[in-house]
Amino acid sequence: MQVPGSRRFWTTTAYVLLALMIVGGSFSVWWLSRYAMAVHRLTRGVGDTVFLASDGKPWFRLDEERRDVTLDAIAPDLQHAFVAIEDRRFYYHPGIDPIGIGRAVFRGVTGGGRLEGGSTLTQQLARTLFLSNTRTLNRKGREVLIALMLEVELTKSEILELYLNRVYLSAGVYGVETMSQHLFRKSAKQLSLAESALVAGLVRAPSTLSPWSNYEGALDRSHVVLAQMRDQRFITPEQETAARKVRPRIQTYRQTREGASGWAKEWLRQQFRSEFGGDHPPEWQVHTTFDRTLQDAAERAIAAGLQRIGKPGLEAAFVAMDPRTGDVLAMVGGGDYARSTFNRATRGRRQPGSTFKPFVYAAALERGFSPVSVLTDLDRVTAPAQGDPEWSPRNAEGDTPVALTLRAALMDSNNAAAVELQQRVGTGAVLTLASTAGLDNLPNVPSLALGTGLVSPLDLTAAYTMFAAGGAMAEPRGVSAVTDADGAEVFTRAPQTRRVLSEPVAFQMLSMMRDVVDRGTGHSARAAGLQGPVAGKTGTTDAYHDAWFVGFSNTLVAAVWIGFDTPAPIGRDAYATRVAVPIWADFMKRAARVRPAESFVIPEGMHGEELCRESYLHPLEQCPTYVEYFKEGDQVPTQLCPIHTGTLKQRVTRATEGFMRSLGGRLRGLFGR
Hints:
Blueprint: H1 4-41, E1 50-52, E2 58-61, H2 76-86, H3 98-110, H4 121-130, H5 137-153, H6 156-166, H7 176-184, H8 193-200, H9 215-231, H10 237-244, H11 262-276, E3 285-288, H12 292-309, E4 315-321, E5 328-332, H13 357-366, E6 374-375, E7 383-385, E8 388-391, E9 404-405, H14 406-411, H15 415-425, H16 427-436, H17 457-468, E10 472-474, E11 479-483, E12 489-492, E13 497-499, H18 503-518, H19 524-527, E14 535-540, E15 546-552, E16 557-563, H20 576-579, H21 581-591, E17 607-612, E18 625-630, H22 648-671
Parallel strand pairs: 1-3
Antiparallel strand pairs: 1-2, 3-11, 4-5, 4-16, 6-9, 7-8, 10-13, 11-12, 14-15, 15-16, 17-18
Helix pairs in contact: 1-5, 2-8, 2-9, 4-5, 4-6, 8-9, 9-10, 12-21, 13-15, 13-16, 13-18
């Protein structure tokens, strides 16, 4: 006899299972209908993945060079070569090949678990158009279902045509027509048997077998293709023998013609491919963070700057970001994309020089220093260095002031002060701060303060966002979302930020770097006519091999690097203020039309104190003054300015202070004996 409790349990279980079946069935119906519509749309042709600029308007395609052609515009030998090597029963199976699957499973079991491919051309097309390359049972199941739908909606000829126009063949080239033009400078219809076999053989391992980097490997694979074509009676043994004797002559890789935007576009393509592989989903949209107005401004500024410098072979890199979100707004990776597609903005790693000094100063401010803390005995600063028992930092002009405030030292980019400050706070503290800001693998050496590590312009720009955004560093973001053909979001990336500095320290740093632009080594930006609240830091490496400027407003952070790929002097006296700053100022003036600089917000809890702009002490009547902001715990100067004159009362007070300091010094000397 069944107890009531047991009956209730089984009844509940039955309802739960029924509900799960209904939900699962509904989801299956929705999924099938969705992909059935997508497959049906293929009868009208295939759209491409389109990248949108930040304004939502189309910018470029995933494959700008793709050339779709009809099947009769593709040589029969090329068609037969793909069928022979990839799917010998293509014309006979319904989208999946049970024989091929069985053979792949058998070889996987007998081969120690190593899986082999059993996908038909139709399955490969399904994966290319709709799915990722992730190897999971779930993806494989969806691939099979979509392949069956393709066979229902399309003819074998239509499937083969789509496949040959979309297949990835190495070096960023998709489709047989584009590859034919790149490899042989002729159309796919004009390819010989040997050339057709070479192209078809690339599908197995496009990167490894690229003819431009592994010609012999590609040639060996083409012989396998020819053997398969002979076995399947697409060609005669005599044709195979003749084709084997041919070494197809390939042409040099022809670069794409995308202008100065090429580096930005290819970087975004790489961002997409790292998430979805090398596939071409139809009618997908990739939402990017790039502002086309700012991209154009960056390209114009770099071109004008390099032309002004006039050094053949000189390269440049530029990155602009939104400091609050990390959105990459513009990027230029060199001087001429047609000459070199190497992206110096993301992949180039060079010494940042004095643009690294703000990280040393920020570490000091976090440990109790203020912008007017004084560093003394700078003429005696020494530090050990590898291979040199006594190493002394030297300023660019050769002079070495005895004492400087942090503000004055950063404004003048004093090397001795930076090294002394690093020794006081500890190299470990500086490395920790830099690492937290995304600058890793820097050397633990005394010259770290002078920027002897290696960084990329993108990483350095991202690190500087913490100065512009109140101490919160933003990770670079190029792609914000991806939507499929139905408008459904298949990928999204929200802005990612992390706290690196306290708000008061970040504000003190930007205040000091404003002086760099207004009165220091970055003054050429003002001379170029740039207005508004901006800040930044110059950087020039030894022998003028690299010139940097990283600057910002509260709406924009931008970095400029100038140099040769093989380090060499840019020119005589090629300081950053002469080489890099004018390019940055040119960009910022153009950018002000869409992202004007706004006033920086003073954090709560900071105390403003009027000081003399020259002595950084309590001002007298005739002192040029400014407001210094102090955080909690900072020591505020009370000593009167010794440089300028004031009222009689102020002069008496200053004299009294001087007498008391002198008397105190004598007493300390007397009792200290």
